[in-house]
Design goal:
about 30% helix; alpha+beta; about 180 residues; globular; five-stranded mixed β-sheet; four-stranded antiparallel β-sheet; single chain
């Protein structure tokens, strides 16, 4: 396995400089700051796998959420599923709960069009870019009930944030106009 670099410094809040940061990431910090949501940030190499995210978990002292961008077979319904990082995803179990058969991973162009993010960077924070509400948020109940904090990317996979779960549910989601449905996986 190649070396995965993590800056061991845990920062509070946004980067001091915007140099080298993508606009999507900066917009996340702008919104979190406007909403008064505190967060800790860790910078690292691009994290494309849950294995890399588990390394990040140790520094943030959390479990980073697995975020899956899904759609139905007709590509008329899109879902962002948040679940514990170590949990296995079973399509049939979720399909029954939401009444949508033949779920699959949505193509990257939908992710970019609706959430303004690229594969590997999927995050609940991308919902701030879904102003027309194309994407329905599904959250495994274990994320809500069992974790004081969640870990997620700020719409790029070169940083990870530690945010209070209640701040996402009670401040961020209402502000961006997205409700969520609890599922049991």
């Amino acid at each position: 396995m190649d070396t995965f670099y993590i800056d061991p410094t845990l920062y509070t809040g946004r980067p001091l400089s915007s140099a080298g940061r993508l606009p999507q990431e900066l917009r996340v910090y702008d919104l979190l700051d406007r909403l008064g949501i505190s967060y800790e940030r860790l910078d690292h190499d691009a994290a494309f796998t849950m294995e890399a995210c588990h390394s990040i978990d140790k520094f943030l002292d959390i479990d980073i959420c697995k975020n899956l961008f899904l759609c139905n077979a007709q590509r008329t319904a899109f879902y962002l599923l948040m679940m514990p990082g170590g949990k296995k995803f079973r399509t049939s179990l979720l399909s029954r709960q939401i009444g949508s058969s033949r779920l699959s991973f949505a193509e990257p162009e939908y992710m970019e069009r609706f959430l303004d993010i690229t594969p590997g960077s999927v995050s609940v924070l991308g919902l701030m870019n879904d102003r027309e509400r194309h994407v329905k948020l599904l959250i495994d109940e274990e994320v809500v009930k069992g974790h004081e904090f969640i870990g997620c990317h700020p719409c790029v996979n070169t940083s990870s944030l530690k945010i209070r779960t209640c701040d996402i549910l009670e401040a961020f989601l209402p502000h961006v106009g997205h409700a969520y449905a609890l599922v049991c996986l």
